[in-house]
Amino acid sequence: MASGLTIGVFFLVRSLVRGYKRNHRERHALRPGNPANFATRLKMAFENDNAFGWGTDEELVFQTIELIPSISMMRKVERAYRDLYGSNLSADLKSELSSEEFAIVQQIINSKT
Question: I want to staple 45 with a disulfide (CB 3.0 to 4.6 A). Which of 40, 50, 57, 75 is the partner?
Answer without folding.
Answer: 57
